[in-house]
Amino acid sequence: xxxxxxxxxxxxxxxxxxxxxxxxxxxxxxxxxxxxxxxxxxxxxxxxxxxxxxxxxxxxxxxxxxxxxxxxxxxxxxxxxxxxxxxxxxxxxxxxxxxxxxxxxxxxxxxxxxxxxxxxxxxxxxxxxxxxxxxxxxxxxxxxxxxxxxxxxxxxxxxxxxxxxxxxxxxxxxxxxxxxxxxxxxxxxxxxxxxxxxxxxxxxxxxxxxxxxxxxxxxxxxxxxxxxxxxxxxxxxxxxxxxxxxxxxxxxxxxxxxxxxxxxxxxxxxxxxxxxxxxxxxxxxxxxxxxxxxxxxxxxxxxxxxxxxxxxxxxxxxxxxxxxxxxxxxxxxx
Length: 334
Description:
This protein has 334 residues and is an alpha/beta fold. The chain folds into two domains: 2-41 and 201-299, no CATH class; 45-199 and 300-333, Vaccinia Virus protein VP39 (Rossmann fold). The protein has eleven helices and 13 strands. It has a seven-stranded mixed β-sheet, sandwiched between helices. Helix 4 links the parallel strand 1 (70-74) and strand 2 (96-101).
């Protein structure tokens, strides 16, 4: 894992544009800061409206999910949203298998321990501390092994894959790659449940403030990428020589989406050395270091753009619900 992280960091820091992968801030500290931002930042609308719509539609939603015995949770975090579904399913099922996936193993283990305390033996927890693509391939292998073991009884393992709010943090090309991998993991009766940002992009200020708020919640999270480089990679990045900025990029084409760029910009010439990567790089005044891959993070969609994306991955939109900011999409395999 360490070599993979170093390779991805080098690829980004030597790339054009220069960037740090969007997943890099999510160590234990970054996951904690992200949760604080979601729960306490009054400018960050997505989490509040996501919780509201999930609570509003929960009774109807469970009707679509009630036959599932396994729940895979991509980017599980503290599992607050997923527990809404677990609570309802465990009213009618004696037990469930729960597979939380998170890149931060330390944070994942804390979540798993907390859920074990809450649900006891009613929840069989199988955590996977990996990047999403690696985790999905592991999950596919596990399901294939179960199929070989149970044969025609494999339908007992009908599953839900939930991905709350994290798909939109990937670049558009990666979103399609992951959706294709998810499809390959799904059986005929499985469901994918995702939440996505459908805020009207004419509300530019509302969106930009959500991802760089005046109170500093978002900034603390985003800058964990830099602090983590300093902590773990023996870097000497002086954040006082940079200014953090963001911008909404609007895209109305059906085969793409709108997104937010977040970067730090040098306010003077400075040299950066990263010891563990054996890398020294000079930043000129005004030069940017993006805190994600090309084509942004925190994507914003129209329903038409979502339908196009899912169709490209041979997935179907079975049902959707939406409010002012959030769409909950129930997805099946075509």
